[in-house]
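Checked the freezer inventory, then went back to the computational side. Two predictions to log before the end of the day. The first one is the construct we discussed on Monday; recording sequence and C-alpha coordinates without edits.
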Amino acid sequence: MDSLTFSNTWFRDGAKNIWNNIIPIYSPKKILEIGSYEGQATCYLIEHLGNLQTIEITCIDTWEGGFEHKEHGTDMSAVEKRFHDNIQFAASSVLNFPFVEIRKGTSEIELMKLFLEGRQNYYDFIYIDGSHETVDVLSDAVLSFKLLAPEGLMIFDDYCWATGEKNIDYFPKMAIDAFTTIHANKIEMIPTYNTQIAIVKT
Protein backbone atom coordinates (compact mmCIF):
# COMPACT_ATOMS: atom_id res chain seq x y z
CA MET A 1 0.00 0.00 0.00
CA ASP A 2 1.48 3.34 -1.07
CA SER A 3 -1.30 5.76 -0.10
CA LEU A 4 -4.34 6.21 2.12
CA THR A 5 -7.49 4.66 0.69
CA PHE A 6 -10.98 5.80 1.68
CA SER A 7 -14.33 4.96 0.12
CA ASN A 8 -15.96 8.28 1.06
CA THR A 9 -15.21 11.93 1.86
CA TRP A 10 -17.26 12.24 5.06
CA PHE A 11 -14.40 13.41 7.24
CA ARG A 12 -12.84 15.66 4.63
CA ASP A 13 -16.15 17.37 3.86
CA GLY A 14 -17.39 17.66 7.45
CA ALA A 15 -14.85 17.60 10.23
CA LYS A 16 -11.52 18.46 8.65
CA ASN A 17 -11.90 22.24 8.43
CA ILE A 18 -13.12 22.38 12.03
CA TRP A 19 -10.26 20.21 13.26
CA ASN A 20 -7.74 22.36 11.40
CA ASN A 21 -8.68 25.19 13.76
CA ILE A 22 -9.11 23.22 16.99
CA ILE A 23 -6.59 20.36 17.06
CA PRO A 24 -3.43 22.54 16.82
CA ILE A 25 -4.59 24.52 19.85
CA TYR A 26 -5.06 21.47 22.09
CA SER A 27 -2.39 19.26 20.51
CA PRO A 28 -3.62 16.12 22.30
CA LYS A 29 -1.28 13.24 23.14
CA LYS A 30 -3.78 10.71 24.51
CA ILE A 31 -6.76 10.19 22.25
CA LEU A 32 -9.88 8.02 22.36
CA GLU A 33 -11.92 7.48 19.22
CA ILE A 34 -15.34 5.85 19.30
CA GLY A 35 -16.18 4.71 15.79
CA SER A 36 -13.14 4.42 13.54
CA TYR A 37 -14.56 2.97 10.29
CA GLU A 38 -11.76 3.31 7.68
CA GLY A 39 -9.55 5.48 9.89
CA GLN A 40 -9.93 8.90 8.29
CA ALA A 41 -10.00 10.76 11.61
CA THR A 42 -7.31 8.52 13.08
CA CYS A 43 -5.00 9.12 10.15
CA TYR A 44 -5.62 12.86 10.33
CA LEU A 45 -4.49 12.87 13.96
CA ILE A 46 -1.44 10.73 13.22
CA GLU A 47 -0.39 12.92 10.29
CA HIS A 48 -0.99 16.25 12.05
CA LEU A 49 0.42 15.34 15.45
CA GLY A 50 2.88 12.53 14.78
CA ASN A 51 5.63 14.79 13.52
CA LEU A 52 5.42 16.90 16.69
CA GLN A 53 5.12 14.28 19.42
CA THR A 54 4.41 10.65 20.19
CA ILE A 55 0.68 10.13 20.46
CA GLU A 56 -1.45 7.34 21.85
CA ILE A 57 -4.78 6.55 20.15
CA THR A 58 -7.36 4.08 21.42
CA CYS A 59 -9.79 3.08 18.66
CA ILE A 60 -13.11 1.42 19.51
CA ASP A 61 -15.27 -0.11 16.79
CA THR A 62 -17.16 -3.33 16.13
CA TRP A 63 -16.55 -3.12 12.37
CA GLU A 64 -19.97 -4.67 12.00
CA GLY A 65 -21.63 -1.46 10.85
CA GLY A 66 -24.90 0.13 11.86
CA PHE A 67 -28.32 -0.24 10.31
CA GLU A 68 -27.39 2.28 7.60
CA HIS A 69 -24.47 0.13 6.47
CA LYS A 70 -26.60 -2.99 6.44
CA GLU A 71 -29.22 -1.19 4.34
CA HIS A 72 -26.60 -0.31 1.74
CA GLY A 73 -24.87 -3.69 1.84
CA THR A 74 -21.53 -2.23 2.97
CA ASP A 75 -18.76 -4.82 3.08
CA MET A 76 -17.58 -4.20 6.62
CA SER A 77 -14.73 -6.71 6.39
CA ALA A 78 -13.30 -4.57 3.58
CA VAL A 79 -13.84 -1.45 5.69
CA GLU A 80 -11.93 -3.02 8.58
CA LYS A 81 -9.06 -4.04 6.29
CA ARG A 82 -8.82 -0.50 4.91
CA PHE A 83 -8.68 0.81 8.48
CA HIS A 84 -5.68 -1.37 9.31
CA ASP A 85 -3.92 -0.58 6.01
CA ASN A 86 -4.52 3.16 6.38
CA ILE A 87 -3.29 3.26 9.98
CA GLN A 88 -0.16 1.34 9.06
CA PHE A 89 0.58 3.71 6.18
CA ALA A 90 -0.06 6.87 8.23
CA ALA A 91 2.04 5.62 11.15
CA SER A 92 4.98 4.85 8.87
CA SER A 93 4.94 8.35 7.38
CA VAL A 94 5.53 10.39 10.56
CA LEU A 95 8.62 11.02 12.68
CA ASN A 96 7.15 9.70 15.93
CA PHE A 97 5.56 6.29 15.49
CA PRO A 98 2.19 6.37 17.30
CA PHE A 99 0.86 3.79 19.73
CA VAL A 100 -2.50 2.67 18.34
CA GLU A 101 -4.61 0.47 20.60
CA ILE A 102 -7.43 -1.24 18.71
CA ARG A 103 -10.34 -2.47 20.80
CA LYS A 104 -12.83 -4.40 18.67
CA GLY A 105 -16.16 -4.49 20.45
CA THR A 106 -19.16 -2.41 21.42
CA SER A 107 -18.40 1.01 22.86
CA GLU A 108 -20.55 0.35 25.93
CA ILE A 109 -18.44 -2.64 26.95
CA GLU A 110 -15.07 -1.25 25.89
CA LEU A 111 -15.62 2.09 27.64
CA MET A 112 -16.53 0.32 30.86
CA LYS A 113 -13.39 -1.81 30.51
CA LEU A 114 -11.28 1.33 30.16
CA PHE A 115 -12.88 2.75 33.29
CA LEU A 116 -12.19 -0.45 35.23
CA GLU A 117 -8.60 -0.38 33.95
CA GLY A 118 -8.14 2.96 35.69
CA ARG A 119 -8.30 5.39 32.79
CA GLN A 120 -10.51 7.93 34.50
CA ASN A 121 -9.50 11.50 33.52
CA TYR A 122 -6.93 10.00 31.15
CA TYR A 123 -7.60 11.17 27.61
CA ASP A 124 -6.81 14.65 26.27
CA PHE A 125 -9.21 14.25 23.34
CA ILE A 126 -12.23 12.04 22.78
CA TYR A 127 -13.99 11.82 19.42
CA ILE A 128 -17.49 10.33 19.37
CA ASP A 129 -18.50 9.09 15.93
CA GLY A 130 -19.90 5.62 16.52
CA SER A 131 -23.48 4.41 16.53
CA HIS A 132 -26.13 6.86 15.35
CA GLU A 133 -28.76 5.42 17.65
CA THR A 134 -29.89 8.05 20.13
CA VAL A 135 -29.44 5.90 23.23
CA ASP A 136 -26.00 4.75 22.08
CA VAL A 137 -24.82 8.32 21.50
CA LEU A 138 -25.93 9.34 24.98
CA SER A 139 -24.27 6.27 26.50
CA ASP A 140 -21.02 6.98 24.64
CA ALA A 141 -21.05 10.56 25.87
CA VAL A 142 -21.76 9.76 29.53
CA LEU A 143 -19.29 6.87 29.78
CA SER A 144 -16.46 8.54 27.89
CA PHE A 145 -16.80 11.83 29.80
CA LYS A 146 -15.50 9.98 32.85
CA LEU A 147 -12.38 9.12 30.85
CA LEU A 148 -11.77 12.68 29.66
CA ALA A 149 -9.11 14.64 31.52
CA PRO A 150 -9.90 18.07 32.97
CA GLU A 151 -9.40 20.68 30.23
CA GLY A 152 -9.71 17.80 27.75
CA LEU A 153 -11.45 18.19 24.41
CA MET A 154 -14.47 16.17 23.27
CA ILE A 155 -15.98 16.38 19.80
CA PHE A 156 -19.24 14.84 18.61
CA ASP A 157 -19.86 14.12 14.94
CA ASP A 158 -23.21 13.85 13.14
CA TYR A 159 -25.01 16.44 15.25
CA CYS A 160 -27.44 17.13 12.41
CA TRP A 161 -27.59 13.55 11.15
CA ALA A 162 -31.07 12.33 10.22
CA THR A 163 -32.77 15.50 11.45
CA GLY A 164 -35.43 14.94 8.79
CA GLU A 165 -36.35 11.55 10.18
CA LYS A 166 -39.34 11.07 12.46
CA ASN A 167 -37.84 8.09 14.26
CA ILE A 168 -36.31 9.44 17.47
CA ASP A 169 -34.37 6.19 17.90
CA TYR A 170 -31.88 7.54 15.34
CA PHE A 171 -31.40 11.15 16.39
CA PRO A 172 -27.87 11.98 17.66
CA LYS A 173 -28.80 15.64 18.19
CA MET A 174 -31.29 14.71 20.91
CA ALA A 175 -28.63 12.74 22.81
CA ILE A 176 -25.94 15.39 22.40
CA ASP A 177 -28.29 18.16 23.52
CA ALA A 178 -29.31 16.13 26.57
CA PHE A 179 -25.68 15.48 27.49
CA THR A 180 -24.53 19.08 27.10
CA THR A 181 -27.55 20.33 29.05
CA ILE A 182 -27.02 17.95 31.96
CA HIS A 183 -23.28 18.73 32.06
CA ALA A 184 -23.64 22.46 31.48
CA ASN A 185 -21.76 23.31 34.69
CA LYS A 186 -18.91 20.97 33.82
CA ILE A 187 -18.21 21.93 30.22
CA GLU A 188 -17.40 24.86 28.00
CA MET A 189 -18.81 24.89 24.48
CA ILE A 190 -16.40 25.66 21.63
CA PRO A 191 -17.96 27.50 18.68
CA THR A 192 -18.07 25.26 15.60
CA TYR A 193 -20.18 24.89 12.51
CA ASN A 194 -21.44 22.14 10.21
CA THR A 195 -22.31 18.89 11.97
CA GLN A 196 -19.76 18.89 14.79
CA ILE A 197 -20.18 19.88 18.44
CA ALA A 198 -17.04 20.53 20.51
CA ILE A 199 -16.73 20.90 24.27
CA VAL A 200 -13.99 21.22 26.89
CA LYS A 201 -14.30 19.55 30.29
CA THR A 202 -13.95 22.18 32.99
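The second is the one RB wanted added to the comparison set:
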Amino acid sequence: MSVIEVHDLAKTYFVGKLEVRALRGVSMAIEPGQFVAIMGPSGSGKSTLMNLLGCLDRPTSGQYLLDGEDVSALDRLKLAGVRSRKLGFVFQSYNLLPRTTAFKNVMLPMLYDRENVSSRAERKERAKAALEAVGLADRMHHLPNELSGGQSQRVAIARALVNDPALVLADEPTGNLDSRSGAEILALLSELHQRGRTLVVVTHDPEVAAMTQRVIHLRDGLIEADVHNGAQAVAAPHSPTTEGVAP
Protein backbone atom coordinates (compact mmCIF):
# COMPACT_ATOMS: atom_id res chain seq x y z
CA MET A 1 0.00 0.00 0.00
CA SER A 2 1.32 3.44 -0.94
CA VAL A 3 1.76 6.06 1.79
CA ILE A 4 0.62 8.72 -0.68
CA GLU A 5 -1.65 8.09 -3.65
CA VAL A 6 -3.19 11.01 -5.50
CA HIS A 7 -5.35 10.96 -8.62
CA ASP A 8 -6.05 14.05 -10.75
CA LEU A 9 -5.59 16.36 -7.77
CA ALA A 10 -6.66 19.91 -8.59
CA LYS A 11 -6.91 23.12 -6.57
CA THR A 12 -8.44 26.37 -7.75
CA TYR A 13 -8.38 29.64 -5.83
CA PHE A 14 -10.32 32.81 -6.50
CA VAL A 15 -8.63 36.15 -5.93
CA GLY A 16 -11.54 38.52 -6.38
CA LYS A 17 -12.92 37.51 -9.77
CA LEU A 18 -9.60 36.05 -10.89
CA GLU A 19 -9.45 32.25 -11.06
CA VAL A 20 -6.06 30.79 -10.11
CA ARG A 21 -5.58 27.13 -11.00
CA ALA A 22 -2.74 26.26 -8.63
CA LEU A 23 -2.89 22.51 -9.38
CA ARG A 24 -4.32 21.21 -12.64
CA GLY A 25 -4.54 17.44 -12.17
CA VAL A 26 -1.60 15.85 -10.34
CA SER A 27 -1.35 12.07 -10.09
CA MET A 28 1.44 10.21 -8.28
CA ALA A 29 2.23 7.62 -5.63
CA ILE A 30 4.90 7.56 -2.93
CA GLU A 31 5.79 4.21 -1.41
CA PRO A 32 6.72 3.40 2.21
CA GLY A 33 10.31 4.31 3.00
CA GLN A 34 10.86 6.62 0.05
CA PHE A 35 12.69 9.95 0.38
CA VAL A 36 11.18 12.36 -2.16
CA ALA A 37 11.84 16.00 -3.06
CA ILE A 38 9.23 18.26 -4.65
CA MET A 39 10.72 21.12 -6.67
CA GLY A 40 9.47 23.85 -8.95
CA PRO A 41 9.72 27.58 -9.65
CA SER A 42 7.58 30.15 -7.87
CA GLY A 43 3.96 29.63 -8.87
CA SER A 44 4.50 26.01 -9.89
CA GLY A 45 2.06 24.68 -7.29
CA LYS A 46 4.52 23.05 -4.90
CA SER A 47 3.30 24.94 -1.82
CA THR A 48 -0.30 24.13 -2.71
CA LEU A 49 0.59 20.46 -3.14
CA MET A 50 2.41 20.52 0.21
CA ASN A 51 -0.69 21.94 1.91
CA LEU A 52 -2.90 19.24 0.39
CA LEU A 53 -0.50 16.41 1.22
CA GLY A 54 -0.27 17.79 4.77
CA CYS A 55 -4.08 17.85 5.14
CA LEU A 56 -3.93 21.61 5.72
CA ASP A 57 -6.35 22.18 2.86
CA ARG A 58 -8.76 20.22 0.68
CA PRO A 59 -8.55 19.77 -3.10
CA THR A 60 -11.11 21.30 -5.43
CA SER A 61 -11.30 17.95 -7.17
CA GLY A 62 -9.43 14.66 -7.34
CA GLN A 63 -8.63 12.00 -4.77
CA TYR A 64 -5.96 11.80 -2.07
CA LEU A 65 -5.32 8.58 -0.16
CA LEU A 66 -2.98 8.95 2.82
CA ASP A 67 -1.78 5.65 4.25
CA GLY A 68 -4.80 3.99 2.64
CA GLU A 69 -7.38 6.50 3.96
CA ASP A 70 -9.28 8.73 1.55
CA VAL A 71 -8.88 12.21 3.05
CA SER A 72 -10.03 14.19 -0.02
CA ALA A 73 -13.35 15.38 1.35
CA LEU A 74 -12.84 15.32 5.11
CA ASP A 75 -13.93 18.36 7.09
CA ARG A 76 -11.45 20.51 9.04
CA LEU A 77 -11.96 18.66 12.33
CA LYS A 78 -11.34 15.25 10.77
CA LEU A 79 -8.35 16.58 8.84
CA ALA A 80 -6.88 17.80 12.13
CA GLY A 81 -7.25 14.28 13.50
CA VAL A 82 -5.48 12.81 10.47
CA ARG A 83 -2.62 15.31 10.89
CA SER A 84 -2.20 14.30 14.53
CA ARG A 85 -2.19 10.57 13.79
CA LYS A 86 -0.39 10.23 10.49
CA LEU A 87 1.74 13.29 9.75
CA GLY A 88 4.85 14.95 11.11
CA PHE A 89 5.84 18.46 9.97
CA VAL A 90 9.19 20.20 9.74
CA PHE A 91 9.08 23.88 8.74
CA GLN A 92 11.71 26.33 7.52
CA SER A 93 11.13 28.60 10.53
CA TYR A 94 10.98 25.68 13.04
CA ASN A 95 7.59 26.84 14.50
CA LEU A 96 8.64 26.19 18.10
CA LEU A 97 6.77 27.82 20.98
CA PRO A 98 9.29 30.43 22.19
CA ARG A 99 8.58 30.23 25.94
CA THR A 100 8.45 26.44 26.01
CA THR A 101 11.40 24.09 26.45
CA ALA A 102 12.54 21.74 23.73
CA PHE A 103 11.12 18.85 25.74
CA LYS A 104 7.67 20.43 26.04
CA ASN A 105 7.67 21.44 22.36
CA VAL A 106 8.20 17.79 21.47
CA MET A 107 5.41 16.76 23.84
CA LEU A 108 2.81 18.92 22.04
CA PRO A 109 1.77 16.52 19.22
CA MET A 110 0.91 13.85 21.79
CA LEU A 111 -1.25 16.32 23.72
CA TYR A 112 -3.12 17.30 20.55
CA ASP A 113 -3.74 13.68 19.51
CA ARG A 114 -7.18 12.85 20.94
CA GLU A 115 -6.70 9.17 20.22
CA ASN A 116 -3.46 8.96 22.20
CA VAL A 117 -4.28 6.91 25.29
CA SER A 118 -0.73 6.65 26.66
CA SER A 119 -0.03 7.85 30.19
CA ARG A 120 1.84 11.06 30.97
CA ALA A 121 4.88 9.00 31.99
CA GLU A 122 4.82 7.18 28.64
CA ARG A 123 4.53 10.47 26.76
CA LYS A 124 7.52 11.85 28.63
CA GLU A 125 9.57 8.79 27.70
CA ARG A 126 8.59 9.15 24.04
CA ALA A 127 9.58 12.83 24.01
CA LYS A 128 12.88 12.04 25.68
CA ALA A 129 13.56 9.23 23.20
CA ALA A 130 12.73 11.53 20.26
CA LEU A 131 15.21 14.16 21.44
CA GLU A 132 17.86 11.54 22.07
CA ALA A 133 17.31 10.22 18.54
CA VAL A 134 18.24 13.63 17.07
CA GLY A 135 21.22 14.13 19.39
CA LEU A 136 19.69 16.66 21.80
CA ALA A 137 19.50 14.74 25.07
CA ASP A 138 21.57 17.49 26.73
CA ARG A 139 19.41 20.35 25.44
CA MET A 140 15.91 19.12 26.22
CA HIS A 141 15.27 21.67 28.97
CA HIS A 142 16.55 24.66 26.97
CA LEU A 143 14.26 27.32 25.47
CA PRO A 144 14.37 27.94 21.70
CA ASN A 145 16.33 31.20 22.16
CA GLU A 146 19.01 29.16 23.92
CA LEU A 147 19.44 26.88 20.89
CA SER A 148 21.22 27.36 17.60
CA GLY A 149 19.25 27.24 14.34
CA GLY A 150 20.44 23.70 13.68
CA GLN A 151 19.46 22.60 17.18
CA SER A 152 16.04 24.23 16.83
CA GLN A 153 15.47 22.32 13.61
CA ARG A 154 16.47 19.10 15.35
CA VAL A 155 13.82 19.82 17.98
CA ALA A 156 11.32 20.30 15.17
CA ILE A 157 12.34 16.96 13.66
CA ALA A 158 11.98 15.25 17.05
CA ARG A 159 8.52 16.78 17.37
CA ALA A 160 7.63 15.49 13.90
CA LEU A 161 8.70 11.95 14.84
CA VAL A 162 7.21 11.62 18.31
CA ASN A 163 3.81 10.28 17.18
CA ASP A 164 5.46 7.78 14.80
CA PRO A 165 3.78 9.25 11.70
CA ALA A 166 3.26 7.44 8.42
CA LEU A 167 4.76 10.46 6.62
CA VAL A 168 7.14 13.30 7.50
CA LEU A 169 6.71 16.49 5.45
CA ALA A 170 9.53 19.03 5.45
CA ASP A 171 9.12 22.50 3.92
CA GLU A 172 12.53 24.05 3.07
CA PRO A 173 14.05 22.45 6.20
CA THR A 174 17.50 24.01 5.64
CA GLY A 175 16.29 27.39 4.35
CA ASN A 176 17.12 29.35 7.53
CA LEU A 177 20.38 27.56 8.30
CA ASP A 178 24.03 28.22 7.52
CA SER A 179 25.76 25.70 5.26
CA ARG A 180 27.24 23.63 8.11
CA SER A 181 23.97 23.37 10.06
CA GLY A 182 22.10 22.69 6.82
CA ALA A 183 24.44 19.82 5.99
CA GLU A 184 23.88 18.35 9.47
CA ILE A 185 20.09 18.49 9.06
CA LEU A 186 20.33 16.87 5.62
CA ALA A 187 22.50 14.12 7.10
CA LEU A 188 19.90 13.57 9.84
CA LEU A 189 17.05 13.38 7.31
CA SER A 190 19.06 10.93 5.22
CA GLU A 191 19.69 8.84 8.34
CA LEU A 192 15.96 8.81 9.15
CA HIS A 193 15.29 7.62 5.62
CA GLN A 194 17.82 4.81 6.03
CA ARG A 195 15.92 3.77 9.16
CA GLY A 196 12.76 3.40 7.09
CA ARG A 197 11.00 6.73 7.42
CA THR A 198 8.91 8.07 4.54
CA LEU A 199 9.93 11.68 3.88
CA VAL A 200 8.74 14.33 1.43
CA VAL A 201 10.78 17.54 1.22
CA VAL A 202 9.64 20.68 -0.59
CA THR A 203 12.73 22.60 -1.67
CA HIS A 204 14.20 24.94 -4.25
CA ASP A 205 17.77 23.81 -3.43
CA PRO A 206 19.32 21.28 -5.87
CA GLU A 207 21.74 20.13 -3.13
CA VAL A 208 18.82 19.15 -0.92
CA ALA A 209 17.10 17.37 -3.82
CA ALA A 210 20.31 15.48 -4.62
CA MET A 211 20.14 13.83 -1.16
CA THR A 212 16.79 12.23 -1.94
CA GLN A 213 15.85 9.12 -3.91
CA ARG A 214 13.41 10.82 -6.19
CA VAL A 215 12.64 14.35 -7.39
CA ILE A 216 9.17 15.42 -8.57
CA HIS A 217 9.36 18.62 -10.65
CA LEU A 218 6.24 20.79 -10.87
CA ARG A 219 5.50 23.52 -13.37
CA ASP A 220 2.24 25.39 -13.93
CA GLY A 221 0.35 23.07 -11.59
CA LEU A 222 1.41 19.85 -13.32
CA ILE A 223 4.16 17.28 -12.87
CA GLU A 224 6.80 18.17 -15.44
CA ALA A 225 9.22 15.36 -14.54
CA ASP A 226 9.57 12.54 -12.00
CA VAL A 227 13.25 11.62 -11.72
CA HIS A 228 14.83 8.82 -9.70
CA ASN A 229 18.31 9.51 -8.38
CA GLY A 230 20.05 6.42 -9.67
CA ALA A 231 21.02 3.66 -7.27
CA GLN A 232 19.56 5.52 -4.28
CA ALA A 233 16.05 4.80 -5.49
CA VAL A 234 15.44 1.72 -3.35
CA ALA A 235 12.60 2.05 -0.87
CA ALA A 236 13.31 0.84 2.64
CA PRO A 237 10.54 -0.83 4.67
CA HIS A 238 8.96 1.23 7.45
CA SER A 239 9.48 -0.39 10.83
CA PRO A 240 7.89 1.58 13.68
CA THR A 241 9.59 1.13 17.04
CA THR A 242 7.86 0.63 20.35
CA GLU A 243 9.05 4.06 21.46
CA GLY A 244 7.37 5.69 18.46
CA VAL A 245 10.61 7.19 17.10
CA ALA A 246 13.45 5.99 14.97
CA PRO A 247 16.03 4.17 17.10
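For RB: Residues 218 and 224 are 5 Å apart (CA to CA). The radius of gyration is 18 Å. Let me know if you want it refolded.
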